[in-house]
Amino acid sequence: MSETKKFLFVNRKAPYGTIYAWESLEVVLISAAFEQDARMAFIDDGVYQIAKGQDTSELGIKNFSPTYNALGDYDINKIYVEKESLEARGLTVDDLLPLTYEDEDDDWAEKDSIKVVSSAELAELMDQSDVILSF
Amino acid sequence: MAILHTVNKSPFERDALKACVRMASKGSSVLMIEDGVYGATKGTTASNMVTDAMKDVNFYVLSADLKARGVDESRLIEGIKVVNYSDFVNLTVENDKVQSWL
Predict the structure, then answer these.
(1) How close does chain A come to B21, measured CA to CA in Å?
(2) Which is nearest to A101 in space by CA: A111, A90, A91, A115?
(3) Chain A / chain B CB contacts < 8 angstroms
(4) Under-50 pLDDT residues of chain A
(5) Predicted complex ipTM exceeds 0.90
(6) What is the average per-residue pLDDT within B25-36?
(7) Which of the two ends of chain A, N or C, has the fewest CB atoms closer than 10 A to its terminal CB?
(8) Is the CB of residue B57 less than 8 Å from the CB of residue B24?
(9) Is the pLDDT of residue B75 over 80?
(10) Beta bridge mates, A82
(11) Phi, psi of A103 (to 5 degrees)
(12) Residues of the domain holding B57
């Protein structure tokens, strides 16, 4: 394994109606284990994946939202959320999980992983990625 | 003939809710379940459609699906009733038939 590539994982589905969100999270964690430069983008209904306060106890299925908190420990700290998608759903960044990471280049200061970006900025991010995986 | 309509898709991804609202006649009921519960939240691009339909149609949303998705009841459009699974059964019995918008 010599080459590090920039991976962009594009998430567009709500968390429990389909298996896409969970599958994406698994692949992201695997790619981190292979020391690739993984970034995540949440657009359209994908923004619901990282909504705060999920509690699936009455559905009898696994609530995997706490797993997103572990992303920072796997050096996945570039998490982009599309502004337009939040607005269309009446959401703000305060409705999302407070995902953070510790910056080793800044005395392990805790920093926010989530960046709210415009569609135009996301388009640029896609241009800059070597591989785009869509879920 | 009263109909219970169920909608299980997000209004931002599919047009099931839109079709349902178009076909739901006066006095019928719409129950939002699974990803359909996102349609019950206010301040979205779909909320006006629901608010308009509420003049003629009763709207319900399933509590367990709201909780799973972290949708707090304070975020719901005013007038939509939150129901549990046994209420879902009662709605099914009280209406003459069920139409599932998939």
Answers:
(1) 19
(2) A111
(3) 67
(4) none
(5) yes
(6) 97
(7) N
(8) yes
(9) yes
(10) A117
(11) -85, 110
(12) 3-101
Residue A48: which of B38, B42, B43 has the nearest Cβ? Answer: B38
Structural domains in chain A, CATH included, are 6-134 (3.40.1260.10)
Q: For the CA atoms of A52, A58, A62, A65, what is the dihedral angle to 10 degrees? A: 0
- Cα separation, B14 vs B73, in Å, equals 23
Q: pTM value?
A: 0.94
Domains contained in chain B, number: 1
Q: Which of A51, A59, A89 sits opposite B70 (nearest CB)?
A: A51
A69-107 CB burial, b ≥16 within 10 A, e <16: eebbebebbbbbbbbebbebbbbeeebbbebbbeeeeee
Q: What is the CATH number for B78?
A: 3.40.1260.10
Give the B-side interface with A, CB within 8 Å: 8-10, 12-13, 34-35, 38, 41-45, 47, 63-65, 67-72, 75
Residue B28 confidence (pLDDT) above 80: yes
Distance from the A107 Cα atom to the nearest Cα atom in chain B, whole angstroms: 34
* Calpha distance A50→A15 (Å, rounded): 8
**For range B46-58, the mean pLDDT:** 98
Counting residues of chain B whose pLDDT is more than 70, the rounded percentage is 100
pLDDT for the residue A106 = 95
